[in-house]
């Protein structure tokens, strides 16, 4: 029987929700790995709505669960209903929605707060010694919730202009966590905490390299599950 994996979304669209290519890549690799996947998102209002054509805020309100349902093809549940006992692992794709809706990193950085259901989900999987997969900006969730853990968001310097958000690594270190430098097609496994991370779009890289990196993360999560 395939591993049972919960996928947690943060909306739909890179600038105010989940990064669509990352969510899709995770789902493709999970499917290839024979996993049984259920998708969740918090039933909350988005911090903001961004016009993705213009890159500017839009004067409207949207719900994270409703928007995430676009990516889930309607087959989605409220994150409040997720029970860690029913799954072998949990995965969080990235996107600004993670830093805006799942926590307040986009505004508060390392002083952010984490959504109560996101926090309780992470704590439940961690306490049950079940693996947690995170990509792009979502490793900051682990850094905030599990001081001392090891994660990667790519590089800690803007190598060749490919890592414009390299300062995130410093903020992770300030939280008492260890940042591990990795290339976009790699992932890092914190064996002690069963946390697997990869940088995805934190690196300016061709889409297939990001896809492959997420694949390594999914593979490692399934191995640990």
From TrEMBL:
It comes from the Eukaryota. InterPro entries: Class_I_gatase-like. NCBIfam families: PRK11780.1 (NF008747). This is GAL3A protein. The gene is Gatd3a_2.
């Amino acid at each position: 029987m395939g591993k049972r994996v919960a996928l947690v979304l943060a909306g739909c669209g890179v600038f105010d929700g989940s990064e669509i290519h990352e969510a899709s890549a995770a789902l493709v690799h999970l499917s290839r790995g024979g996993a049984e996947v259920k998708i969740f998102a918090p039933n909350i209002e988005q911090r903001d709505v961004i016009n993705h054509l213009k890159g500017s805020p839009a004067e409207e309100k949207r719900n994270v669960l409703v928007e995430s349902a676009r990516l889930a093809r309607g087959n989605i549940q409220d994150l409040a209903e997720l029970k860690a006992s029913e799954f072998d692992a949990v995965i969080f794709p990235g996107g600004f929605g993670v830093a805006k809706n799942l926590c307040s990193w986009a505004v508060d950085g390392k002083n952010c707060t984490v959504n109560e259901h996101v926090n309780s989900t992470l704590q439940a999987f961690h306490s049950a010694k079940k693996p947690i997969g995170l990509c792009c900006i979502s490793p900051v969730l682990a850094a905030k919730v599990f001081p001392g853990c090891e994660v990667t968001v790519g590089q800690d310097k803007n190598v060749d202009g490919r890592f414009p958000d390299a300062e995130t690594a410093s903020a992770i270190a300030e939280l008492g966590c260890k940042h591990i430098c990795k290339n976009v097609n790699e992932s890092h496994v914190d064996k002690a905490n069963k946390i697997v991370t990869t940088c995805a779009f934190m690196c300016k890289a061709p889409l297939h390299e990001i896809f492959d990196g997420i694949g390594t993360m999914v593979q490692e999560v399934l191995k640990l599950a």
